[in-house]
């Protein structure tokens, strides 16, 4: 197998994004750049130089239609496949789109299938009451911790303290179960209908107080450039990025905060 250079890894990730965007348009699905990928588009007109992943989001209606399409045939444009915990080929509660031509180092992924991927996050409804919002995010955060522990390996962790604390909790998380955790996360994230509450955000995988928009804001789209391609995002991207990364999001962070996944991948 041929190992891919860092530049080639980014090109394969970009190819997934471009082909998925075409697939969404062909099926009338709304897909937006979000998180660090949107920041890269605005600040660098492409990848953040030290970053090596791609994040996109979809309103829950588009997202569920994508799941329905993928159930019948998860592969599109020959090389790309939609994977999801509901299909039994992902450990995460959100969709990933993978490139079947690639192979990832096992240390970089916890999915049944280790390929280069992009993440697809559903955007769900939120209550307008802040107390209820906090309660919802707290519940989801707890289940997320259980989920991550359910497929963690003993001795893993960024610090010695975390390694020690994690180890006795892993068997309990495994007892709770990966499938149960994912089903619970999916159910909790869809507790509120954004058409009724008027608020939409990344309830499933986001943090409280961030990535929350009004429905009117969300469905007003704008074009941004990413690596010489044009993609859709929400027209209120400035407020979104400010809430997510702070008022100085256009400034380059210090080297100590320039973190990437150091992905290692090969062509199969």
UniProtKB/TrEMBL annotation:
Domain LicD/FKTN/FKRP nucleotidyltransferase: start-end pairs: 24-246
Question: Pfam families attached here?
Answer: LicD
In the UniProt record, the signal sequence range is none
**Which InterPro entries would you find in this protein's record?**
LicD/FKTN/FKRP_NTP_transf (IPR007074), LPS_cholinephosphotransferase (IPR052942)
Its domain of life?
A: Bacteria
What protein name applies here?
LicD family protein
């Amino acid at each position: 197998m041929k190992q891919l250079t860092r530049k080639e890894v980014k090109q394969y990730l970009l190819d997934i994004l471009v082909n998925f965007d075409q697939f969404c348009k062909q099926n009338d699905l709304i897909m937006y750049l979000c998180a660090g990928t949107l920041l890269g588009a605005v600040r660098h007109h492409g990848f953040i130089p030290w970053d090596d992943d791609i994040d996109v989001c979809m309103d829950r209606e588009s997202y569920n239609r994508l799941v329905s399409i993928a159930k019948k045939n998860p592969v599109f444009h020959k090389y790309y496949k939609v994977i999801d915990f509901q299909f039994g080929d992902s450990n995460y509660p959100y969709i990933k789109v993978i490139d079947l031509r690639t192979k990832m180092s096992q240390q970089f992924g916890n999915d049944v299938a280790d390929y280069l991927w992009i993440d697809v996050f559903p955007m769900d409804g939120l209550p307008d009451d802040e107390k209820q919002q906090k309660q919802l995010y707290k519940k989801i955060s707890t289940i997320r911790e259980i989920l991550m522990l359910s497929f963690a390996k003993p001795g893993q962790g960024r610090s010695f303290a975390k390694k020690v604390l994690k180890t006795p909790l892993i068997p309990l998380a495994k007892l709770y179960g990966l499938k149960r955790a994912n089903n619970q996360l999916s159910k909790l994230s869809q507790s509120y209908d954004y058409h009724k509450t008027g608020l939409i955000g990344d309830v499933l995988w986001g943090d409280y107080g961030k990535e929350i928009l009004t429905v009117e804001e969300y469905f007003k789209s704008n074009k941004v450039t990413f690596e010489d391609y044009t993609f859709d995002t929400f027209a209120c991207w400035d407020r979104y990025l400010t809430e997510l990364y702070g008022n100085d999001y256009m400034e380059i962070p210090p080297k100590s905060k320039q973190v990437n996944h150091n992905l290692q991948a090969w062509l199969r």
